[in-house]
């Protein structure tokens, strides 16, 4: 082990991960491994969920941050540390620094979710809001490090960070020794790289599958070209894996050890988050749900037993509300319709009565009376309905049309 050395490109080996595991004893939780009956039935083999969403600070990030900061020399600790993050890394650095008695400054983008900002401050960091996007925030943090001498704690591109994250892999092997496939979300690559180092050294037969959001998938083109390649304007609801360019250190490890990198759609992410909440009773952020999204998208592609890593649970309540509605729509349980009626007393009541008979739950109703497409005696009603699934959606639409209503999607 060589924690805290200045060589940020040194290789990461199994001994580093085992050393990190000893260092994290009593600091990071050994998070639960929970079986999923629904996913097991879907995949046709046992599926387990590794619940890093229940880790201290709500994600795996504490592991790497603690190992990195604990490895600093005394004079580096005295200078303090600085980080840039919209959420999970911020909280991990804040708590790790407080536990180690090191002053931390965390730069967060303007507009970062207020619960994440508050949590970062409560864990003991001095928070500075800067920039509209994480790239601008990162640049400000690095400038602060140069000006003050504080040590910049990168979220994924450092061997100590990777070694700390790799302890998740050792826990998986201990908790599920028969595992054949591990599925993990990939952003910059620190978590996937750490797990790959740990698992492949002990069990080279285990298949490792990385998952990226379609709109922020920098690894497929980078692996194709053999070097980290930046993508323009990454876009996804999964901010935990919304990284435009792989890190140099994790990229090499992932290129050598990861078996596959898959991508998932936004619909798949929201459906997976909804499934985790309803079936597993676990609050998971979109990035943390990405492995579940991959399993749901192509379940028969994974040999079991499978472990899907839920990397974090720090989701803004307002975002969660929007995602759940999107997830319900993607699962066919949320139906939006426009119905044209004759504008007369009792017409709306009759429509709602028809919906009640069809067992569709009305969530929202709005009238449109001033539209050039409408006749003089017509009104259009926009309906938001909760349904039981795709077949029920079709039944509701067909029944309304059969009753003589003009239904527009």
Describe the 3D structure.
With 409 residues, this protein is α/β, with parallel strands linked by helices. The protein folds into 3 domains: 14-56 and 158-328, Rossmann fold (3-Layer(aba) Sandwich), CATH 3.40.50; 61-152, 3-Layer(aba) Sandwich (Rossmann fold); 332-408, Alpha-Beta Plaits. Helix content is 44%, strand content 18%. The protein contains 16 helices and 14 strands. The strands form 3 sheets. The chain has a 6-stranded mixed β-sheet, sandwiched between helices. Strands 5-4-3-6 form a 4-stranded parallel β-sheet, sandwiched between helices. It is an enzyme of class 4 (lyase). Its EC number is 4.3.1.19.
Protein topology:
Elements: H1 14-23, E1 33-35, H2 37-43, E2 47-51, H3 61-70, H4 74-79, E3 81-84, H5 88-100, E4 104-108, H6 114-122, E5 126-129, H7 134-148, E6 151-152, H8 159-175, E7 181-185, H9 190-202, E8 207-213, H10 219-225, H11 248-257, E9 260-264, H12 266-278, H13 286-297, E10 306-310, H14 317-330, E11 334-342, H15 347-357, E12 361-368, E13 378-386, H16 390-402, E14 406-408
Parallel strand pairs: 2-10, 3-4, 3-6, 4-5, 7-8, 7-10, 8-9
Antiparallel strand pairs: 1-2, 11-13, 11-14, 12-13
């Amino acid at each position: 082990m060589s924690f805290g050395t200045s060589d940020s490109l040194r290789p990461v080996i199994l001994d580093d991960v085992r050393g990190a595991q000893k260092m994290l004893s009593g600091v990071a939780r050994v998070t639960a491994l929970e079986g999923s009956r629904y996913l097991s039935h879907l995949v046709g083999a046992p599926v387990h969920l590794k619940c890093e969403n229940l880790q201290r600070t709500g994600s795996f990030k504490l592991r790497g941050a603690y190992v990195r900061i604990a490895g600093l020399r005394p004079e580096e600790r005295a200078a303090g540390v600085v980080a840039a993050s919209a959420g999970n890394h911020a909280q991990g650095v804040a708590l790790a620094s407080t536990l180690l008695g090191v002053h931390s400054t965390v730069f967060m983008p303007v507009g970062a979710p207020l619960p994440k900002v508050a949590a970062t401050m409560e864990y003991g960091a001095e928070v500075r809001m800067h920039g509209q996007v994480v790239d601008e925030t990162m640049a400000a943090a690095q400038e602060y490090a140069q000006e003050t001498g504080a040590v910049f704690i990168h979220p994924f591109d450092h061997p100590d960070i990777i070694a700390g994250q790799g302890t998740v892999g050792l826990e998986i092997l201990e908790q599920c020794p028969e595992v054949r496939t591990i599925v993990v979300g990939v952003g910059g690559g620190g978590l996937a790289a750490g797990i790959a180092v740990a698992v492949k050294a002990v069990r080279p037969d285990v298949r490792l599958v990385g998952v990226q959001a379609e709109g922020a998938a920098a690894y497929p083109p980078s692996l194709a070209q053999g070097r980290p390649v930046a993508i323009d304007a990454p876009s996804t609801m999964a901010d935990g894996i919304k990284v435009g360019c792989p890190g140099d250190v994790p990229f090499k490890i992932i290129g050598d050890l990861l078996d596959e990198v898959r991508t998932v759609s936004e619909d798949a992410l929201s459906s997976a988050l909804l499934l985790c909440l309803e079936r597993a009773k676990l609050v998971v952020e979109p990035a943390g749900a990405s492995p579940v999204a991959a399993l749901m998208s192509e379940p028969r592609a994974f040999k079991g037993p499978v472990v899907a890593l839920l990397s974090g649970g720090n989701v803004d309540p307002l975002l969660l509300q929007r995602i759940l509605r999107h997830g319900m729509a993607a699962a066919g349980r949320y139906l939006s319709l426009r119905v044209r009626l004759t504008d007369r007393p009792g017409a709306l009541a009759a429509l709602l009565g028809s919906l009640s008979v069809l067992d569709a739950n009305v969530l929202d109703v709005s009238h449109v009376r001033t539209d050039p497409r409408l006749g003089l005696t017509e009104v259009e009603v926009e309906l938001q309905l909760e349904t039981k699934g795709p077949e029920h959606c079709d039944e509701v639409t067909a029944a309304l049309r059969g009753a003589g209503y003009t239904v527009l999607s």
